[in-house]
Amino acid sequence: MHQAGASALTQLLRYDPPDADLRTIPCPCGHSAHYKELRSKTVLTVLGPVKLRRPYYTCADCSKGQYPVDTELDLAGLESSPGVRRMEAVVGSEMPFAPGREPMKLLAGLDVTAKAIERAAEAIGTQIAQRDEQEIGRAKQLVLPVVFKQNIVKMYAERT
Ligand SMILES: [Zn+2]
Q1: What is the pLDDT of residues 12-34, one digit of tens each?
Q2: For ligand 1, a single-atom ion, which residues have Cβ within 5 Å?
Q3: Which of 39, 94, 109, 144 fits 56 for a cystine, CB–CB 3.0-4.6 Å?
């Protein structure tokens, strides 16, 4: 099911070149960025890795490149979807980052690095703490039911 979901999502994330009237967009430097080509990157989502293909724009003036789609999807400069980053943050707030890879694999079928959990936990931890503490409480109940948590700790203790 994960597989089917991931390939359906890949279809959705296959953007076409922009229409003629959308080939020029503002650049933060004040000049304009022009559509150059479609570029792909792999993004880890809650359904597994998917390929994102989207338009790439460059500015002739400052030579900076940008991907408006990445900004829209909250993926700018990142390789994990917001959903995965939230899960990593929740897991990272519950246990050390390295063992946190275990529930990510067990509950979501995702292979992530301890570093990714650490980064997400720090980034989102601060963000959520400031904004909505209830949300992380709800997310914890969803992602880490008590029974799983105990099993994971046990599993871990046995292995080490
Ligand atoms: Zn520019």
Answers
A1: 889 999 999 989 999 999 999 99
A2: 27, 29, 31, 59, 61-62
A3: 39
Helix/strand/coil for 113: coil
Q: Write the single-letter amino acid at 52.
A: L
Q: What number of CA atoms fall less than 13 Å from residue 113's CA on the CB side?
A: 5
Interhelix angle 114-131/133-143, nearest 10 degrees = 140
The Cα–Cα gap between 126 and 12 comes to: 31
- pLDDT tens digits along 115-153: 888 888 777 656 655 655 666 566 665 555 444 444 555
Q: At what angle do helices 114-131 and 101-108 cross, to 10 degrees?
A: 80
